[in-house]
Amino acid sequence: MNLRRLLARTISETVAGVSWMRPPAEGLRVLMYHAIGTPALGDTLGLFSLSPERFRQQMALLSGWQQGRVIEFDPVALSGAGCRVAITFDDGYLDNLEVAAPILSELRLPFTVFVTAEFVRNGKAGFLSPDAMRALAALPGAQIGAHGARHVALTQCDEATLHNELTSSRYYLEDVLGSEVRTLAYPYGAADRRVRDAARAAGYRLGACSLAGINAPDRDPLLLTRTEIVSFDNERVFAQKLHGDWDWYRWRTQDPACL
Ligand SMILES: [Zn+2]
Fold first, then answer.
1. How far is the CA of 90 from the centre of ligand 1 (A)?
2. β-pair partners for 212
3. Which one, 64, 108, 221, 236, has the greatest CB density within 10 A?
4. Ligand 1 centre from 113 Cα, in Å?
5. Residue 28 CA to its chain's centroid (Å)
6. CB 208 within 8 A of CB 226
7. What's the 20 CA to ligand 1 centre distance in angstroms?
8. Res 17 pLDDT > 80
9. What is the rounded distance in angstroms from the CA atom of residue 62 to the CA atom of residue 53?
10. 71: which DSSP letter?
């Protein structure tokens, strides 16, 4: 673990130490995972691939929750009482089908995988193929969302490229799946109001960025915050993140809704 992560953990432990008596923060908490059990792309620090054992532990904790608290990532998810959680994965790793999905299916937990369209189209090693993506989408509780066409930062794209990234990826996924794709996660979490407006114009109803935190019902549905889960997050840290003890992390980055 690097120094910055260690400092973050120390602060969060302190927050947890003084906040354990308060109830968990209310709203929609969207968990962000990447790979489970295989290496994640460009992950030099080893943060973005959880061991299957650790992932199972975390999902077992969620499955012990009251029914209705772990919900699908869809437009109605924002309205509701109490603390709800949606489980999401970025990039479209093949292990999401082969390792994560069996655990999620066994525990009857819904989840969404945001797929990079060109990785599928080009048969990129380690990622979902068209057949694998169809198999994943056919599982009960599974949903496919978009993650751009080429996995580029959309905030850096000119208008034409931005439009193409958002629409070509959606159309490709819909062609392969034979069903609508109306949700997306922005690659690298790179979003601002221009990207949000383009996503809305391209037909998306829900968009997830990487800003930390929980979503109140009035949060912009196309700029939802998420809670990143990394490989070092043991059961204790996972529980802290669910409780909101790591939400201070959001102050590291500017809210895309203000950009
Ligand atoms: Zn990504």
1. 5
2. 226
3. 221
4. 11
5. 12
6. yes
7. 33
8. no
9. 15
10. -
HSE (side-chain half, CA atoms, 13 Å) at 76:
4
- Mind listing the pLDDT tens digit for each residue in 123-176? 999 999 999 999 999 999 999 999 999 999 999 999 999 999 999 999 999 999
Distance between Cα 203 and ligand 1 center (Å): 20
Cα(152) to centroid(ligand 1), Å:
9
Q: Provide the percentage of residues in the chain whose pLDDT is more than 90.
A: 77
Question: Which structure tokens are listed for 135?
Answer: 């198999």
Q: 127 CA to middle of ligand 1, Å? A: 12
Can you read off the two tokens belonging to residue 25?
């923060």
In a domain, 245, yes or no: no
Q: Looking at the domain assignment, is residue 238 inside a domain?
A: no
Q: What is the CATH number of the domain that holds 68?
A: 3.20.20.370
Task: Give the chain's domain count.
Answer: 1
Which phi-psi region, left, alpha or beta, contains residue 115 (left: φ > 0; alpha: ψ -120 to 50)? beta
Residue 141 covered by a domain: yes
Domain membership flag for residue 122: yes
Which residues form the domain of 121?
25-233
153 Cα–ligand 1 center, Å: 9
pLDDT tens by residue, 120-135: 999 999 999 999 999 9
